[in-house]
């Protein structure tokens, strides 16, 4: 845990995110958080993680596709992935309906062999 602070004589534990999240700036498309890529998605993206600034999962993934347009495998791998948003499975929900939160995390999980 991070440091603690006192409030009216009660110790309150605070935590620091592993990667500090900058607040959304005026004019930004939405909340700011982190996209984490795993296995083949990580290889296709060429990075383990990157920030998002988007209101929905669809917006975040569209921006990621544009960022990685020079990596031809990225869009192909992304199309086969499943997603967790703040540890909750997205499943078959329309990505345009999946809201993202300030400081949230999107996990990009390609299909795994063996279960």
TrEMBL record:
Top-rank taxon, per record: Bacteria
Region (Disordered): 1-29
Pfam families (alphabetical): ThiS (PF02597)
Descriptive protein name: MoaD/ThiS family protein
Record organism: Streptomyces klenkii
